[in-house]
Every structure is written in structure tokens, then in C-alpha cells.
Amino acid sequence: MGTLNLGTNGKIQATNIDLSADWKNAPPGTIITHVYGSMGSNFSTTSDSNVATGLITSPLVKKLANGSAAGTSRIHVFCFGGNRDSNTENAQDVTSIYRKVNNGSYTERDYGDAQYVGGYWQPHCVSMVDTSVGAMGVGDTVRYQMYVRSRGGSNTVYFHREIGGVSGSPYIIAQEIVN
Predict the structure, then answer these.
(1) Relative to the CA of 20, which of 6, 49, 91, 159 has its CA 20 to 30 Å away?
(2) Do 163 and 42 meet the contact criterion of CB atoms below 8 Å apart?
């Protein structure tokens, strides 16, 4: 393995660095792939079933097999920002992270966050680490998407609501990281 040092003159000095894309030799914690998506429009539902929001990552092409052992990688997924809202203080929104591998269907991967304080604007704050062994291999294309539901139905919950001056876009980020 090579060494990368900050030299005494402020210049980066590299010795014996192999950039031939053999990612399993990268130091643990190295981010080798990064994708994201954002949403700039309102999205709401009254459904008590999970509904796709349209907040989705661009395609992430795996460089290593998924797992938790040396020579594999994991994917860290984050959803943050936006402006959650509802039409009543009795509404509860529940968000989930879904994953799609290659041309498969989106399947629920993890519970995200929930809010039960309708009428109060709050951002999302969701994260998960996907180490599903065998679920994704080298070259597989992976996408993550946020889903939302209105627990109990009937109330309108906003995954994101554009309100002048108080709402920034929600983002979803996925990063493949070497173990």
C-alpha cells in the first residue's frame, strides 16, 4: 500500500500509490463512490401505505462487493433537510429508505424518521449503513429513494413543503465506503 503525506513545503507527496482502480486496497474509510438527489417541489400524501416521494439518488455503481469484512464496502445513506409539515397537529408522518439493485423493484431497507407534531416545520434527519452481504456485487447499480406515509391515513402529511423563506430542499446522499 502507498503513502500519502503532506510535505513540509505544503505540497502533497505521494509514494508508491497505485491508482489502477483496485479499490479493495484502499484504506478503510475511503469514500470511493458518492451520489445524491434533491427535491425542490412539494410532496404530500394521505395514504397509510408507504408512497415513493421522488427523492432518489442518481445511480451508484458498486466498486466492491457489499459486506463488513476487509476487501468489501458498505453504503452510508443520509436524508436531511427539507420542510416537513401536516394539515393538523394529530398527523404523524413516517419515512423509510428503500433500495433498488439493478433492474429490480424498490424494497424497504430501513425505517427513517417520524414526526408527530403537526403544524411545526422541521427538517428530515435520517441515516443508515447498508452492509447487506450478497445483496450487491461489483458493478451492480444501486439507487436509494425516500418513502413516506401518513400513519393512520386521512391526515395530509408533507414530506416536503415549499414555504417562502423557511424551506430548503431535502437531499439524499449515498456513499460507498471501504471497510
Answers:
(1) 6
(2) no
The residue among 114 and 137 whose pLDDT is bigger is 137
- For 129-149, what is the mean pLDDT? 92
Q: Identify which of 147, 53, 143, 64 has the alpha carbon closest to the alpha carbon of residue 99.
A: 143
Global confidence as pTM = 0.85
CA–CA distance, 134 with 104 (Å, rounded to integer):
15
- Cβ burial of 172 (10 Å; 0-12, 13-18, 19+) is buried
CA distance 95 to 117: 15
Q: What is the average pLDDT score of the chain?
A: 86
Question: 12 falls in which pLDDT band (50, 70, 90)?
Answer: low
Polymer length of the chain: 179
Taking the CA atoms of the chain, what radius of gyration do you get in angstroms?
Answer: 20
Could you tell me the domains of the chain?
24-178 (2.60.120)
